[in-house]
Request: fold
Amino acid sequence: IYIPLMESSKLPPMVEINKGCQVGEERILLVDDEEVIAELEKKMLERLGYKVTARFHSTEAFEAFKATPNLFDLVITDMAMPSSTGIELSKKILALRGDIPIIICTGFSEKIDAEKVKLIGIKGFLMKPIVRAEMAKIVRQVLDEAKNKSQQET
Reply:
């Protein structure tokens, strides 16, 4: 088999890769018990410029958050996890730091929806499968709202 050499191995600049997506540099705690999904979402977010810490168990995620609650600007958690749900994890995190924005991801719209999560204090809602552009939009929107609220309070 003959495979011709590439003229250039340069990747397109990140600006082109992220064209049409909103980017940032904040720190995100990502929680999903399915490691493959967590790794995919982590890569998506890192390509958008965010610094991501991924945890595959809600108890590990809570311990990481509890140890350094001010290290994170946002928490993104799956809804359905074995040891505790995303809602239960969110409530525990909000009890430690009430101003942390949280986004819930789920594939089960009949159990939870955007209105129900807002009543709990969760700021964003994403349906699975996650679409990169939608994730970028919601993450940026939630972070900007939290930033604006924090500036208004000072």
The chain has a mean pLDDT of 88.
